[in-house]
Amino acid sequence: GRWRVIPEPANDATGSAYVLPIFPLEHAILPSTIVPLHIFEPRYRKFAHDLQTMKDPSFGIVGIERGREVGGQDQRFDVGVVMRVLHAEKFSDGQWALTSVASRRITVTEWLPEDPYPQALVVDRHDRVDRDSDEAAVALDRHSLATEFAHLAAMERRQYPQVDLLAGLDPAEDFDWRTWELVSRSGLCSLDHVRLLRCDSPAERTRLANTLITERRSLLEALAEGDR
Residue 179 CA to chain centroid, in angstroms? Predict the structure, then answer.
């Protein structure tokens, strides 16, 4: 089945920091993304166990900028997302399966000792109000983004008939949330995800998403042309 994804507001408006367990991934995650995790390392088994003691199990995901998380010595981005746990299952051998959805954006202000898994002091990132935005221009940008994503989805479908980027799109009325869902399906690279996570203006983020998706479609078209 499909989980109904509901946009989650920032934790508070004060900018106060709080401690969050962190699961670093090689690819930065965007809000709206559902992430399944297979937990097998001993320290992350403890991580999964500790999540179950929370009233509302949640953790952070940040992308890895350089290196690999396994074995340590990785360098992580300072932006990420809060993950709300949707389902957790522990197996007889002590491993876990976690399914979670990315909700609000966060900034890491300080990494804490990894005892035994990564933890950090984080603050929620808040969208700023685009008071000077022209409503007609914003509406046009949103329409352009939806159209460009539809073109990308159609091209992917022609190349890979089994891939349908439009399947199961959440009918959320919040267009900012829809923007996240569209770009999370577009196959952008981790650096593109980080640029979007750092963008605090919904209007600017829509324009950036449109640009990035257009660039990806152009690249895929060029690659397809080269294969003919």
Answer: 12
